[in-house]
Amino acid sequence: MLIAQGIGGRPSKFLTLTLRRSEARTPIEAAKLLVTAWRDMRLDIMKKRKWQRLEFLAVFEPHVSGWPHLHIILRCPYIDIYWIKEWMEKRFNSFKQDIRSIDQQQWVAAYVAKYCGKGATKFGTCKRYWQSKRFDMRPKPERSWRLINDPFREVLPCTLGTMISVYTKQGWTVHHTAAWKATFRPPPKGASP
């Protein structure tokens, strides 16, 4: 789901923010500082460039040592890496930042899988990932749809896991071969749910 959201945002840049390791800070404290840093940096970028918005998807990933990195997938024009490094060094004494441009859209899936596919990690109360309101540009699903084996019952969009749970409780037999494909068979006649 996270990779699909990243690709659906049609990103043009990949930014990684890192804080310098410190004995005085725990990884959870560092993650909280990274959340604050990105929020403030984003506002400063928008103000400096006079942009109305800066669309993004942010994902936490732990380094091998357990220290957090914040990977941010952006849809925006050029942002100067030296400005980012100076901004982070001035506020957090951390100069090791990285931003990469996506030159060819065919590489988006590879970059997104690299940045998001390792698995987002939760640091304390920080979210594992979050995005701006308009980042994901995929078309929204229809308000309702019908199951193939149950044409008379309308179902609101939900996850396959929720559907399997609901139908299993009603006595249906569910066979799934992959996370996105399942067949639903009604319970035998006379069976109680």
Write the layout of secondary structure elements.
Blueprint: H1 2-8, E1 13-18, H2 27-49, E2 55-62, E3 68-75, H3 81-92, E4 98-101, H4 108-116, E5 129-131, E6 145-147, E7 150-155, H5 160-169, E8 173-178, E9 181-185
Antiparallel strand pairs: 1-3, 1-4, 2-3, 2-5, 6-7, 8-9
Structure in words:
This protein has 193 residues and is α+β, with helices and mostly antiparallel strands. It folds into 2 domains: 2-131, Alpha-Beta Plaits, CATH 3.30.70.1910; 145-185, no CATH class. The protein has 5 helices and 9 strands; from the N terminus they run αβαββαβαβββαββ. The chain has helices spanning 2-8, 27-49, 81-92, 108-116, 160-169, and strands at 13-18, 55-62, 68-75, 98-101, 129-131, 145-147, 150-155, 173-178, 181-185. The protein has a 5-stranded antiparallel β-sheet with strand order 4-1-3-2-5, sandwiched between helices. The protein has a two-stranded antiparallel sheet with strand order 6-7. Strands 8-9 form a two-stranded antiparallel sheet. A hairpin with a 2-residue loop joins β6 and β7. The two termini are 32 Å apart. The model is unreliable at 151-157 (pLDDT under 50).
